[in-house]
Design goal:
The chain starts with 6 loop residues before the first helix and ends in a 6-residue tail after the last helix. The mean pLDDT is 96. The strands form two sheets. The protein has an eight-stranded parallel barrel, surrounded by ten helices. Strands 6-7 form a two-stranded antiparallel sheet. By secondary structure, the chain is α/β, with parallel strands linked by helices. The radius of gyration is 19 Å and the shape is globular. Bound molecules: glyceraldehyde-3-phosphate, 1,3-dihydroxyacetonephosphate and zinc ion. Zinc ion binds next to loops.
């Protein structure tokens, strides 16, 4: 099976009350860890590549790694550009074999967001590629953009119908309290997503797939391993997994997870070096790191997304 778009995945996910995991990939071990878990669980998958990942690993290497994963797993896999910030990067990914792109013009004024999104949608649809857009601004760090909590803003449900109609986008990322990175909520506060906004948005866009960014849960056992093995990540707090599971049962069809994979990989490598200070063969520490990613993704597929067996 070749790379697929997200169209059919999202239709099934919407109707089935589950979500597809969109996991960020930056190198071979990450691609392998994610796709091995999805294969074991027969789960559909979105592999996503940020601008930073393209700069780090090179577009061609990433495409070829993902194509290898398609051959190895036989799963329906979509290759998605995460947080495209210009028409040019979206065009380059569309021309270069991606099946889905995000144009993230959420920091621009409403009319500018619409105009840029519309331009990307026209080009993408002419080439059989689907487009995710964003309304509302998440806090946190993505590539070189760092949005403070004060400058973040929830999505305004009254804007979504006009935005989707005028842009023709295929899915919409909304801001309901998630944020990027490992430090999402102030220590001591109780994380609570705004389900009222999600409900209002989905009432106005019946059947339309919604996307949640910034959906890592920052499992404390990994933070503990990192901190016990030379790391320093006090106050790292994520989105409670039961709230993500609830969102997946609603209109949310795509849940973005990157930081949790980074934590799993880093915890494994830190512990490995503490336990084996004399080792220096990268295969020795990357093998358990890849297995840690696989375990993390398997847990997300079964306990958070609910997409096991849905490929
Ligand atoms: O939302 C951002 C993703 O976690 C990608 O992060 O831009 O550092 O590759 P990155
Ligand atoms: P996390 O930082 O919560 O993993 O979010 C990733 C993301 O939204 C990628 O677009
Ligand atoms: Zn994101």
């Amino acid at each position: 099976m070749p790379l697929v778009t997200t169209k059919e995945m999202f239709e099934k996910a919407y109707n089935g009350g589950y979500a597809i995991g969109a996991f960020n990939v930056n190198n071979m071990e990450i691609v392998q860890g994610i796709t091995e878990a999805a294969k074991d669980l027969n789960a559909p998958l979105i592999l996503q590549v940020s601008k930073g990942a393209r700069a780090y690993a090179n577009h061609t290497y990433l495409i070829k790694l993902v194509e290898a994963a398609v051959i190895e797993t036989g799963l329906p896999i979509a290759l998605h550009l995460d947080h495209g910030d210009s028409f040019e990067i979206c065009k380059s990914c569309i021309d270069g074999g991606f099946t889905s792109v995000m144009i993230d013009a959420s920091s621009k004024p409403f009319e500018e967001n619409i105009a840029l999104t519309r331009k990307v949608v026209e080009y993408a649809h002419d080439h059989g590629v689907v487009v995710e857009a964003e309304l509302g601004t998440l806090a946190g760090v993505e590539d070189e953009v760092n949005v403070s909590a004060e400058n973040s803003s929830y999505t305004r449900p009254e804007d979504v119908q006009e935005f989707v109609q005028r842009t023709g986008c295929d899915s919409l990322a909304i801001a309901i309290g998630t944020s990027h990175g490992a430090y999402k909520f102030k220590p001591g506060t109780k994380p609570q997503l705004r389900f009222d906004i999600l409900e209002d948005v989905s009432r106005r866009l019946p059947g339309f797939p919604i996307v949640l960014h910034g959906s890592s849960s920052v499992p404390q056992e990994f933070v503990k391993i990192i901190n016990e093995n030379g790391g320093n990540m006090p106050g790292a707090i994520g989105v409670p997994e039961d709230q993500l599971r609830k969102a997946a049962s609603m209109a949310v069809c795509k849940i973005n997870i990157d930081s949790d994979l980074r934590l799993a990989m880093t915890a494994s490598i830190r512990k490995y070096f503490n336990d084996h200070p004399d080792h220096f063969d990268p295969r020795q520490y990357l093998k358990p790191a890849r297995a840690a990613i696989k375990d993390m993704v398997a847990h997300k597929i079964v306990d958070v997304l609910g997409c096991d067996g849905k490929a």
